[in-house]
Amino acid sequence: MIRDDIYEYSLDAHHDEEAGKKIRKKIVFVTVLLTVITVVEVALGAFIKQGSGAWPIVKWSFIIMTLLKAGYIVLTFMHLGDERKGLRYVILVPYILFIIYLMFICLWEGGAVGEAWPATYAK
Amino acid sequence: MAGHATKQIDAKTLWGGKMSPFSTSYGKLMMWFFLVSDALTFGGLLVAYGFTRHATDQAWPIGEETFNSLPFLGHGYPLIYVALMTFILIVSSVTMVLAVEAGHRMDRRGVTKWMIATIIGGFFFVGSQAWEWYHFIHGSEFGKVELADGSQAIVKGHFGEIENFKVIEAGHHHKKDDVIKAGSHGMTQADLMHEYQHAAAEGHILFNEETGKSTITLHDGSKAEISKKPNEHLELIVKKKGKKYAVNKKINGAEAEKMYEQVIGSGEKNRVIYGANLQQNEYGPQQYAQFFFFITGFHGFHVFSGVIINILILLMVLKGTIHRRGHYEMVEKTGLYWHFVDLVWVFVFTFFYLI
């Protein structure tokens, strides 16, 4: 069992040159990945028109790619992946639960409001 | 806040109690809590944007039609500029994480080098955003027009240069037969354009079917005949109402040029809208520009304050203050904030520009 108390002040407060090399390698990998994802996103956005047959798939792939990018930024760049499990969950779980709820309730409500007052809202 | 990877920890490190929650320092944990609350703010803003988009029955703007300009190169480069901005921010995030890594090796020179690179990247991003805002507010040469059947259309193509205004009826300022052109009467080409767009929006341009020429009422009340090269290769992108996508149809060639001419020369107010402000914009519903200003503005404010914080930490690194503490945790904490700014942009980019 991992104890969350007393042991060490910060898990990766210091490392030597060898460990640094490994970390830098990972950083380069993530950089390339983020760049490639962005290029793919822009290419899709520029060439596939909204309303075309492929658009719904493209739209969802945008969202998936965004979440992938966000995951790499949070877990690697912000080192949340290297923190204790407890901290990881304290940060991520409440936020994700709440934001999913908020999206569900607001987007649903938005559609309803649009149908109830089509000519008066968001002209 | 002394102490780092040691087994024996003094009471101060343990937050004055017996525990150090999650084995992190107080400062780092509080930075995380702040970031969660800030993420809720941005999440709320983007969800509000989504709410509006779901509620409207108007055509919502399409990213690659709205943002297709590059500095010095003009139009026709969909999303390239904003992709460049995204890339700049990602790179500055990478240099930040390299600074943190150097800090873990107690490499003061490395930290300095990468912090400077991060700050430069941040300034580049803020500058890019300023350009983007300027362009968004300024709008296109053509604006958005309301066609005869009441549908809205955005216009792409080559704008025929304005040559001069020849005064045919004197006003407060200009006399009859004055020829107002770039270089005379203290006017530049941009001033002519401004005068032309203002008059078009106010319905002060009248197209005469018989002569094929348009007359304009200038600021001082004088009337003048417009001499202008014809617009070429026009494309009217007609927006149809629709909740799901900005569905559109296109009108090209001579028909488009004639329709555009008629709208501009209709003499009716508000048939054409140029650029964007908080009341109206040429891209789509009013709320679109409001959300654009608020969300990208709030994000830009975060980037700007991030740059300032980075500069302060860099000064501390240069003075050796942080090195003497025995650990570079301050760099790590500002790094967290800086990565968060990048993280927010990833979402703004997707929901504002792509979808």
Structural overview:
The complex is a heterodimer of chains A (123) and B (355). Chain A is built from 3 helices and no strands. Chain A is mainly α and 123 residues long. Chain A has 2 domains: 65 residues; 39 residues. In chain A, helix 1 runs antiparallel to helix 2. Chain B has 355 residues and is an alpha+beta fold. Chain B starts with 25 loop residues before the first helix and ends with a helix. The longest helix of chain B has 34 residues. In chain B, a hairpin with a 3-residue loop joins strand 1 and strand 2. Chain B has 2 domains: 184 residues, Cytochrome c oxidase, subunit III, four-helix bundle (Four Helix Bundle (Hemerythrin (Met), subunit A)); 136 residues, no CATH class. Chain B is elongated, with a radius of gyration of 27 Å. In chain B, helix 7 packs antiparallel against helix 9. Chain B contains 9 helices and 12 strands. Chains A and B meet through helix 1, helix 2 and helix 3 of A and helix 1, helix 3 and helix 9 of B.
What features would you highlight for this structure?
heterodimer; A: 123 residues; mainly alpha; 3 helices; 0% strand; disordered N terminus; B: 355 residues; alpha+beta; Four Helix Bundle (Hemerythrin (Met), subunit A); 2 domains; five-stranded antiparallel sheet; 51% helix; elongated
Helices, strands, pairings?
The complex is a heterodimer of chains A (123) and B (355).
Chain A: H1 17-47, H2 55-77, H3 85-116
Helix pairs in contact in A: 1-2
Chain B: H1 26-55, H2 63-66, E1 69-70, E2 74-75, H3 80-104, H4 108-138, E3 144-146, E4 152-158, E5 162-169, E6 179-181, H5 189-202, E7 205-207, E8 214-217, E9 223-228, E10 232-239, E11 248-252, H6 253-264, E12 272-273, H7 286-319, H8 321-325, H9 329-354
